[in-house]
Amino acid sequence: EAAVTQSPRSKVAVTGGKVTLSCHQTNNHDYMYWYRQDTGHGLRLIHYSYVADSTEKGDIPDGYKASRPSQENFSLILELASLSQTAVYFCASSDRGGDGAETLYFGSGTRLTVL
Amino acid sequence: GEQVEQLPSILRVQEGSSASINCSYEDSASNYFPWYKQEPGENPKLIIDIRSNMERKQIQELIVLLDKKAKRFSLHITDTQPGDSAMYFCAASRPNYNVLYFGSGTKLTVEP
After folding, report:
1. Residue in chain B nearest A47 by alpha carbon
2. B109, B19 in Cβ contact below 8 A?
3. Greatest distance between any 2 Cα atoms in chain B
4. pLDDT tens digits, residue range B21-57?
5. Among candidates A90, A100, A107 on the partner chain, residue whose Cβ is nearest the Cβ of B98
6. A98 pLDDT band (50/70/90 cuts)?
7. Is B80 on the interface with A (CB under 8 A)?
8. Is B36 at the interface with chain A, CB within 8 A?
9. What is the rounded CA–CA span in Å between residue A113 and residue A109?
């Protein structure tokens, strides 16, 4: 089965601090994604990438940066963490589909609490 | 991006009965509609999907229906079991666009 590993599993950060969430996949997938999960909002796309050294904005990119230094690694960076960024963050990967999207394989999630 | 609406947000059913979750989308070009199940403390996992060249798909107790004209799709779980209790997310994607847009989720509880 496809493997997507996130670190850390949980983190407590202070308002205004910098937070980096890491994701590593061993699936040889082209696409990687960062989603945020909040109660009542489901899964919202923050950033995604389809090739190393390139990232794309999703629906809610404000306050977040992303970095894809290699096919296997995709990071989410909060330069100035805010209370509103308290959430569970999921990384996912998928293969390039012939006609659009394919199955997403999610990591176990990172629970971020900003105080 | 695509907007996906999902209802209901909370659903309680008795064991052995059926459960139905409904989703709608905005972009008529969307052509791929998966459903993900997330058990408590776990990550979401794909359980069934349907593409726009189909109207119905069934995998065991899971049935997905797609009405392209109305831009609606739905998940039906027949003969529900306690193990079906989880969060369910619908999603949609457009052709040649490898991004899924998710609904807000339905928390299903199957009561014994």
Report:
1. B99
2. no
3. 44
4. 999 999 999 999 999 999 988 999 999 999 999 999 9
5. A100
6. low
7. no
8. yes
9. 13
B43 reaches A (C-beta below 8 A): yes
pLDDT in tens, A9-25: 999 999 999 999 999 99
How many CA atoms lie within 13 Å of B32's alpha carbon, on the beta-carbon side?
A: 18
Q: Do A42 and B105 touch (CB under 8 A)?
A: yes
Question: Encoding tokens for residue B106?
Answer: 């339905």
Cα–Cα distance, A56 to A98 (Å, whole number): 20
Q: Are the CB atoms for A95 and A102 separated by under 8 Å?
A: yes
Residue A16 is classified by DSSP as T
Is the separation of the CB atoms in B98 and B1 below 8 Å?
Answer: no
Contact B99 A104 (CB under 8 A): no
Closest CA to A23 of A71, A74, A57, A67: A74
Q: Which residues of A17-46 are buried (b: 16+ CB within 10 A; e: fewer)?
A: eebebbbbbebebbbbbbbbbeeeebbbbb
Q: What is the dihedral of CA A115, A85, B105, A106, to 10 degrees?
A: -100
